[in-house]
Amino acid sequence: MSGSGGCEWEKDWSDVERVCREGLGGVKPELIDLSAEYWTDVFAPALDSWQVGATPNPDVSCNSEIKFKALPKQLLARDPTAWIATGHYARLLPSPLNPSLPALHRSTFAPKDQSYYLSTSPIQALARTIFPLGSASSKEEVRQLARKWNLHTADKRDSMGVCFIGQKRKFHEFIDSYLPPAPGDIEDEFGKVVGKHDGLWRYTIGENAKVGGQRERMFVARKDVARNAVVIVPAGVDDQRLSVDGPVAPAAHY
Predict the structure, then answer these.
(1) Is 62 a catalytic residue?
(2) Is position 20 annotated as part of the catalytic site?
(3) In this structure, are residues 194 and 178 in contact, taking their beta carbons and an 8 Å threshold?
(4) Which position among 1, 34, 46, 62 bears the catalytic label?
């Protein structure tokens, strides 16, 4: 995505140009700038969610709104017979309900499976998509193929973290640059104030809560949006606040 300050797209684009030049017979790639769409349809909604204490997943939204919506809209408008190929570890097989449409399946290589991140992507775009890595047995198999074809990216380090933040920044520091401070209390399971926080978006339910002065490890059990409070409980405590019976899915997609 061109125009993103956190994502190191310039380096990735340089790799694309070199692969096309050296490994694909001089194919000339084209860079499409979808940064405005990313801001409107992915990042701004994510900021709204973080601000009210939710934990959005921008990587899922990026696939559904950008890679498999905004991008195909442009490509297929130019050429309705065009296909999209990405490096996602996932598979597309004929749907048992309608064989003319694809059904999303997990990757053969479970440790790298990314079908979850594609789970809300439009079926119309997936119908024109190919996932070449979906049947790979391992990451090393992919690297070996890249070496066989003399691609300079064969041993490139795996990308980690949220793409728009990059690998050199801490998540909360990045979000802090977009959201104003919203200080509140950190409470223990009995309602006693044990610390202060600068914003609910700095805490994720179930994660380790780094609060000073505690005798044991504490975990985030709940975020009380109405009171702007974070509730923490000790590890190992027999408390339903650290477990759930099932998920709540307000926007089911199937």
Answers:
(1) yes
(2) no
(3) no
(4) 62
